[in-house]
Every structure is written in C-alpha cells, then in structure tokens.
Amino acid sequence: MCRMRFGIFLMTGLSFLMLGTVAAQGPMGGDAGQYVILSAQYGSERSHVEVTERLKILARRDRPFRISDESMAVDPDHGQAKMLRVFARGPNGRERMFEFVDGSVFEGAMFRSWGRGEWGDEHWKGGWNGGSDNGGGEYVILTAQYGSERRHVDVTNRLKEMARQERAFWLNYSTFGVDPDEGNAKTLRIFARGSNGQETMFEFRDNSLIDGAMFRGWGGGEWGNGGWSGNWNGGGNGGDAGQYVILTAQYGSERRHVDVTRRLREMARQDVTFRLDYRTFGVDPDEGNAKVLRIFARGPNGRERMFEYRDNSVIDGAQFRGWGGGEWGNGKDRWSGRWDGEEREERERERQR
C-alpha cells in the first residue's frame, strides 16, 4: 500500500514538473511560428524609426506586452498616433506586414524563433509600406528636377540618397538643401520611362508625400542615368503619347453642369496633375450637391469614351494625347452631347436586352 502511494506521488510530481517546464517555455517561446521577422518599424508614415533590436529585447523576455512609445523606448512622432509595423516572410516566401496600433497587445506566437530573437534581416530594403525597394515598380526614373518652370535644378543624386534611406518622405524647400526660386511655389518633377517606353512626368508640390513604390529599383538607386528629353513640361513631344483625344470637359451634376474645356486646357498647359474641387474651375454649377468632372474623349478605335473624376480626386492627363499642348477640345472632333457618354449608354442598352 505504501509503495502504491509513493508511486502515485512520484507520478504526480513528475507531471507537475513537466507542466512547469512547458509553462516556463511560454506560448511565445517555441519555434512553431510560420513567419520569420525581417524588420520592425515604429511611428507614423510621416516619422518612423527602426526598432528591430528593441523588439528582440522584448522577445527574449518571452511575454506579451502593450505597444507604446515606452515599450518601444522611442517616440518618433511626439503627440501623434503611432503604430508598430512588423515585416515578415511567410512559408510561401512572400513578405507580409503585421500592424499593431498603440495600446494593442503584442504576442509573438506567430513568429518563428520569437523568444530566441534569431530573426531580423539587416539587408532588408523595404520601407514604411513594406516590400523590397528593388521590386517591380512600373516606371524607371530618368531624372528629378526641383523648382519652377522659370528656375529649377537637377536633384537626381540627392533623391537617390534619400531613396536608399527611406521609401517615403515629405517634400519642402529644405528636402534637397536648395531653394531655386525663393519666395515662389515649387514642385518636384520626376521624369520616368514606363513599360511602354514612353516618358511620363510625375509632379509633387511642396508639403506632399513622395512615395517611391511606383518606381522600379527605388531603394537601390539604379536609375537616373540619362535618357531624359530635357523638357521641364515632360516628354520630348510635350506629353503627346496618350491614346485618347479630348473632345470636351463638363463639370457639375447630371442636373446642372457647365463646359470647362477651355479652363482645363489652361490648366493642362501648366500642370500634368491637379486635385479637383469646386474651386478648380472657378464655378459651382450645382451648389451644395456632389459634382464630378467628366472628360469625353475619342479612343484609338474611334469610339467616344467618358472619364469621370469626383471632387477631391487627382486629375492626371498622361492618358490624353497632346495634354500639355492643349491641342484638343476645339470642335474639330465633335462630342455626342450626352452626359452619360456613348459607351455607357451602349452598355445600358446591352444590359436591357
């Protein structure tokens, strides 16, 4: 009887010892997570810092923690909402971003070798929005020019330096350490070649955010080696590569709209892109109601097509032939006069059949 009791006691003790060992390992300490951490960034889109080493210290403590500037031991954007972004590679080899806002609890069970801190890729080339900066952006940069049409300077090399450090940054006259047209509004114009071989100009005004995601090899700086047309307004042909010829531009609602073709021509000659609202054309044809800009254009197949832009959207003329030259909308190629456009009305008729 005594031997039986002793045996039960011994088995119970061993069971508690094994449970204690498992508990000591903790839910986060194992090697079972399917994602391998590449980098950790803390802050906001405007201002953020690398915190991979700090995250390793917290991981070795092997317990959940709450995200804050105290736990991260840094406050990169004082007084603003911040978050922790963890970039990791999954079992399929693809990169994934995990986002944790301030105040949320972080638990590392999904990450491989979390508690040991055997992760973090010092050669990772991503930025705040993740992804490899040497990735497949559609456009290859030819040059970058900063200033105004009257006075501008080449900032390609300075942009390369910034691209290698960060994917996105805010633009102002101090960004490049030069003010080529003091006291006047300035822009950064990036001239790039698309997959179709055509040159396209991207314009960024002061205080706008520059994000290199659309440019091929952004972080590697393997671009800007010549081939630019040398034209401040973009393209040796003045931006004549678009496939649609504008017939007319109408702004307003179906109930009340006005012709703004002439005003759009004036804006196109000055700028490739601009943001739309009721002040853009100096007229509000349907006050208090939602309005749109409708550009009616003729495509390469000879058919009319309507492009619609709602208030606060960005208008980019790259798809329209002769955009910057304003050689369109002059009545030579007439608009159908239909607010809904030919194509849309044809699709409606087909659906009703």
What's the short story on this structure?
This protein is of the alpha+beta class and 353 residues long. The chain has helices spanning 2-25, 52-60, 69-72, 156-165, 261-270, 342-352, and strands at residues 36-43, 48-50, 65-66, 83-89, 95-101, 105-106, 140-147, 152-154, 168-170, 187-193, 199-205, 209-211, 245-252, 257-259, 273-275, 292-298, 304-310, 314-316.
Written overview of the protein:
The chain has helices spanning 2-25, 52-60, 69-72, 156-165, 261-270, 342-352; strands at 36-43, 48-50, 65-66, 83-89, 95-101, 105-106, 140-147, 152-154, 168-170, 187-193, 199-205, 209-211, 245-252, 257-259, 273-275, 292-298, 304-310, 314-316. With 353 residues, it is α+β, with helices and mostly antiparallel strands. It has three domains: 36-106, no CATH class; 140-214, no CATH class; 245-352, no CATH class. A four-stranded antiparallel sheet has the order 2-1-4-5, covered by helices on one side. Strands 8-7-10-11 form a four-stranded antiparallel sheet. A four-stranded antiparallel sheet has the order 14-13-16-17. A hairpin with a 4-residue loop joins β13 (245-252) and β14. The longest helix is centred in the first third of the chain and has 24 residues, at 2-25. The N and C termini lie far apart (91 Å). 27% of the residues are buried. Mean pLDDT is 78; it is low at 4-30 and 236-240.
